[in-house]
C-alpha cells in the first residue's frame, strides 16, 4: 500500500471529484431557489451542510448520485413547485434520469439542457412549460430513451431532430399546443415503440410513412388535431401495433380493410370523426382486439358475421352512426363483453338472447334504434350491470324477473317502448 504512484494518483483525482461534487451541491441549491413552492416552501431538506461535504446533497430527497457524488437522478414529482427550470440545470451533466413531473413549473426549457448528454429518461409531464422545444437541445441528447412532456404548454413545430436519437423508444409530446404537420421524417424512427402526439393542434395529412417504424406498438394521434384526409391504408402493415388511437381528428374516408392485418392490436379508437362506408369484413383478422370504438362517425351497413372471430372483445362502441340490420347473435356469446353502446343507429330485430350470460356485462345502451322482441333474461347474471338504457325502441313484454334482483343497477331507462 506504500505505492507512491497510487498515492500520487489519489491526490491528483480526489480534489477534482470533490470539487465537482461540491458544485453539484451548489447547482441543486440554485435549483431550489428557482423551483419554489407555495409561499417559498418546497424541497425542505435541500440545505447546505454545516461543513463542506462531497456527498451531503446525495441524500436530498429525490436526488441520487454515482460513486463520485455526481447527481445521476433527480426525481421531484407531484409536489407544488412554481417557478422555472434555471440554466444551471445544464451543469448536472451526469444526469441520467430527470423526472420533474406533476409540479407547476413554467417558462421555457433552458437551452443549457443540451449539456445533459447522459440523459436517458426525461419526464416533465403535467407542468406548464411553454415555448418551443429547441431542436438543438434535442439533438445532443443522444442517449435518450424516454421523453415525456405530456400536458404542458409547448408550442411551435414538432422537432424533427428526435428522429436522430437512435435509442429513443418512448416519445410523448401529447397535450401541448404543437402545430404544423407531423414531420415526414418521423417515418425514420428506428427503435420507437410508443409515439403519442394526441391533443395538439397538428394539421395536414397523417404521414403514411409512420407505418415504416419497425417496432411500433402504440400510436396516438387524435384529439384536437385536425388532419386532412383519412387513415393511411399503410397502417395495416405495422405488424407490431397493439394500440391505435385516432379519435377525434377530422378523419374522412373509409376504414381501410388492411387494418385487419394487425394481429396484435388490442385497441382501435376511431371515434368522433367523419368516417364513411361499411365495416370491412377483413377486420375479423384483428384477433387480439378487446376495445373497438367507432362511435360518432358516418359509418353504415351491417355488422359483418365474420366479426364472430373477435372473441376477445370487451368494449364495443358503435353509437351515432348509420348502422342497420340485426345485432348478430355472436355478440351475446362474447365471453368478455362488458360494454355495448349502439345508440342512435338503425339496428333492427331483437337483442341477442345470450347477452349478459357471460356474467360480465356492465353497460348496455341501445337507445334510438328499431329493436324489438323481449329482453334477454341474463343481462345482470354476473351482478355487474350498472347501466341499462333501452329507450326509443320497440321492445315489448314484461321486464325479466331476474332484472328485479339486479342490485348493481344504478341507472335504468326504458321509456318509449311498447
Ligand atoms: C456545459 O458543460 C460544460 C462541461 O461539461 C461546462 O463547462 C459548461 O459550463 C456547461 N454549460 C452550461 C451552459 O451549462
Ligand atoms: C427514473 O426515475 C423515476 C422516478 O424515480 C423512476 O420511476 C424511473 O424508473 C426511473 N427511470 C429510469 C430509466 O431509471
Ligand atoms: C411521467 O410521470 C407521470 C406522473 O408521475 C407518470 O404518470 C408517467 O407515467 C410518467 N411517464 C413515463 C414515460 O414513465
Ligand atoms: C397555457 O396555454 C393556454 C393557451 O394558450 C393558456 O390559456 C394558459 O393560460 C397557459 N397556461 C399557463 C400557465 O401559461
Ligand atoms: C377536415 O377534413 C376535410 C376533408 O379532408 C378538410 O377539407 C378540412 O380542411 C379539414 N378540417 C380542418 C380544420 O383541417
Ligand atoms: C364532419 O364534417 C362536417 C362537414 O365537413 C363538419 O362540420 C363536422 O364537424 C365533422 N365532424 C367531425 C366529428 O369531424
Ligand atoms: C384473449 O384473451 C385471453 C384472456 O384475456 C388471453 O389469454 C388471450 O391471449 C387473448 N387472445 C388474443 C389473441 O389476444
Ligand atoms: C354523412 O354522410 C352523408 C352521405 O352518406 C352526408 O350527406 C352527410 O353530410 C355526412 N355527415 C357528416 C356529419 O359528415
Ligand atoms: C334510419 O333509417 C331511416 C329510414 O331508412 C332513415 O330515415 C334514418 O335517417 C336512419 N337513421 C339513422 C340514425 O341512420
UniProtKB/TrEMBL annotation:
The keyword ATP-binding does not apply. Pfam families: LRR_1, LRRNT_2. Its main location: membrane. One of its GO terms (cellular component) is membrane. InterPro entries: Leu-rich_rpt, LRR-RLK, LRR_dom_sf, LRR_N_plant-typ. Keywords: Glycoprotein, Kinase, Leucine-rich repeat, Membrane, Receptor, Repeat, Signal, Transferase, Transmembrane, Transmembrane helix. Coiled coil: none annotated. It is found in: Membrane. GO terms for molecular function: kinase activity. It is a single-pass type I membrane protein. Gene3D superfamilies: Ribonuclease Inhibitor (3.80.10.10). SUPFAM superfamilies: RNI-like. Residues 1-21 form the signal peptide. Residues 23-66 form the Leucine-rich repeat-containing N-terminal plant-type domain. Belongs to the RLP family. This is Leucine-rich repeat receptor-like kinase protein HAR1. It comes from Sesamum angolense.
Amino acid at each position: 500500500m506504500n505505492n507512491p504512484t497510487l498515492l500520487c494518483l489519489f491526490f491528483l483525482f480526489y480534489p477534482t471529484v470533490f470539487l465537482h461534487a461540491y458544485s453539484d451541491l451548489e447547482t441543486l441549491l440554485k435549483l431550489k431557489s428557482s423551483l419554489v413552492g407555495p409561499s417559498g416552501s418546497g424541497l425542505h431538506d435541500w440545505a447546505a451542510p454545516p461543513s463542506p461535504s462531497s456527498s451531503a446533497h446525495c441524500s436530498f430527497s429525490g436526488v441520487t448520485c454515482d460513486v463520485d457524488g455526481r447527481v445521476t437522478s433527480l426525481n421531484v414529482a407531484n409536489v407544488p413547485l412554481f417557478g422555472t427550470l434555471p440554466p444551471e440545470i445544464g451543469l448536472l451533466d451526469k444526469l441520467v434520469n430527470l423526472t420533474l413531473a406533476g409540479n407547476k413549473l413554467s417558462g421555457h426549457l433552458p437551452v443549457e439542457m443540451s449539456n445533459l448528454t447522459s440523459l436517458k429518461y426525461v419526464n416533465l409531464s403535467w407542468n406548464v412549460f411553454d415555448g418551443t422545444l429547441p431542436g438543438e437541445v434535442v439533438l445532443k441528447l443522444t442517449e435518450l430513451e424516454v421523453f415525456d412532456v405530456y400536458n404542458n404548454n409547448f408550442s411551435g413545430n414538432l422537432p424533427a431532430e428526435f428522429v436522430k436519437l437512435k435509442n429513443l423508444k418512448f416519445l410523448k409530446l401529447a397535450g401541448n399546443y404543437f402545430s404544423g404537420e407531423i414531420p415526414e421524417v418521423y417515418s425514420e424512427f428506428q427503435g420507437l415503440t410508443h409515439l403519442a402526439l394526441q391533443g395538439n393542434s397538428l394539421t395536414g395529412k397523417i404521414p403514411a410513412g409512420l407505418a415504416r417504424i419497425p417496432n411500433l406498438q402504440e400510436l396516438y394521434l387524435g384529439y384536437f388535431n385536425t388532419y386532412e384526409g383519412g387513415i393511411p391504408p399503410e397502417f395495416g402493415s405495422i405488424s407490431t401495433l397493439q394500440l391505435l388511437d385516432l379519435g377525434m381528428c377530422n378523419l374522412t374516408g373509409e376504414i381501410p380493410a388492411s387494418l385487419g392485418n394487425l394481429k396484435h392490436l388490442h385497441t382501435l379508437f376511431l371515434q368522433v370523426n367523419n368516417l364513411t362506408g361499411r365495416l370491412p369484413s377483413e377486420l375479423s383478422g384483428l384477433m387480439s382486439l378487446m376495445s373497438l370504438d367507432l362511435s360518432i362517425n358516418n359509418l353504415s351497413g351491417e355488422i359483418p358475421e365474420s366479426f364472430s372471430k373477435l372473441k376477445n372483445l370487451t368494449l364495443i362502441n358503435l353509437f351515432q352512426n348509420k348502422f342497420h340490420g340485426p345485432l348478430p347473435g355472436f355478440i351475446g356469446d362474447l365471453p368478455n363483453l362488458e360494454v355495448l353502446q349502439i345508440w342512435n343507429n338503425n339496428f333492427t330485430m331483437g337483442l341477442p338472447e345470450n347477452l349478459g350470460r357471460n356474467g360480465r356485462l356492465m353497460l348496455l345502451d341501445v337507445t334510438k334504434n328499431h329493436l324489438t322482441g323481449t329482453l334477454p333474461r341474463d343481462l345482470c347474471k354476473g351482478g355487474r350491470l350498472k347501466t341499462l338504457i333501452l329507450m326509443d325502441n320497440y321492445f315489448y313484454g314484461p321486464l325479466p324477473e331476474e332484472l328485479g334482483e339486479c342490485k348493481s343497477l344504478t341507472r335504468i331507462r326504458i321509456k318509449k317502448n311498447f
